[in-house]
Each structure stands twice: as C-alpha cells, then as structure tokens.
Amino acid sequence: MEEQNAAQARAEEAQAMERVVSATRQVQVAFNALQSQFPPDGSGKPSKLALQTFDAALQALEDAQQAFDEILNDLLDGNR
Length: 80
What we know:
Elements: H1 2-35, H2 48-76
Helix pairs in contact: 1-2
C-alpha cells in the first residue's frame, strides 16, 4: 500500500512539473503572438484578444507554479 502511495505521489509531482512546462510554453506562444503585433511586423496596437490570451497564459503559469511550489515545500519539509 505504501508503495502505491509513493508511486501516486511521484505521478502527482511529475504532473505538476509538466503543468509548469506546458504553461511556460503557452506563455511563449502568447508572447510571440503579441510581439508580432508591434513593429516592425505590426502596427503597435495589439488586439484585445492577444492581450487577453497573454494575460490568461501568465495566470495559468502562476497557478501552475504555485501548485508546484506547494508540492516542493512538502518535499522539503519531509511531508511527501
């Protein structure tokens, strides 16, 4: 039973790390889309959608980092 709990904990840790990686990629994609709307390629007036997408990606990254930090703190405190 303890082995199963340890495997589940490792899976949760890996999932939290992958969530951070995925969110980081989403921020990169949203940033590139936003950046393309500035000179030399764009007008310098980013669309509301591009700004909202970038903001949402940043929020998702912040949420993912917070969840990962909670797991990391549990690991460091010996609670995992």
